[in-house]
Amino acid sequence: MDAMTNAQDILFRTLGDPTRRAIFESLCRDGEQTVGALTARAGISQPAVSKHLGLLKQAGLVRDRQQGRQTHYTAQPEALAPLTDWTKQMARFWESRFDDLEDLLKRMDQ
Amino acid sequence: MNDTSLQTRTVTVEREFAHAPEKIWRALTQPHLIEAWLMKNDFVPALHHRFKLSADWGAVDCEVLEIEPNRTLSYTWAAMGLDSVVTWTLTPTGAGTHLKMEQTGFQPGQDAAYNGAKYGWNKFTTALDEVLAKLDA
Question: What is the pLDDT of residue B78?
Fold first, then answer.
């Protein structure tokens, strides 16, 4: 299995669960939240929410931060890169590399 | 988009340069020049040579696949889950050189086992595209 299929696999598996997806969407939409706040919304027990957050964290989709007795979670949407169209990103990348190449070629004349 | 398991995608960027192919070839194959427009590297113009392009965001693993001085240079490009091949083609023109870069790789596929999951995903990924677009801005 190549690296890309594998990365996708983990993302699909992690976000295939509707509860986890809802938690992740909520973090994307509303920013950083505590486990308590997420539990209040999810309508399931806090240990269940914590377990889902653990799996999201393993997949690189969320990051946690301890503050006092509370753990705060933030979404990491960049982790979804393997699912987005890489061609757009690379086209932008190469266009700007071509610009730098052009500058270099001019400097090489001197 | 159809649901074949893996789809090949290609990015093409091309430009006319008022410089001779030989000069552009140097910029594409000499490490200190490559560094000036692309990334730090340990490139050697030799078939099957493995090299790394590195930047502050990470590294790209490469292997030279094809090399024909002043005409064609092709190497693999593996980074951040993307397995692809980058091919440079230099064509002399009256005023200089037409340079074409083609990068071909696999679009993340839709593994049959996940088609079901993916169905519920379409709307979701559209929303995420919007989030990602905002991050880019």
Answer: 85
ipTM of predicted complex? 0.74
The CATH class, in words, for A3-79 is mainly alpha
Give the Å distances, CA to CA, from B135 to A25, A62, B99, B113, B132.
16, 16, 32, 31, 5
Q: Are residues B94 and B38 in the same domain?
A: yes
Query: Is residue B20 situated within a structural domain?
Result: yes
- Cα separation, B53 vs B60, in Å, equals 5
Any idea which of A3-17, A30-44, A51-65, B81-95 has the lowest mean pLDDT?
A3-17
Task: Look at A8 and B78 and tell me if their CB atoms are within 8 Å.
Answer: no
Q: Based on the domain organization, do B94 and B41 belong to the same domain?
A: yes
| Cα A26 to chain centroid, rounded | 13
Nearest chain B CA: its distance from A87 CA (Å): 6
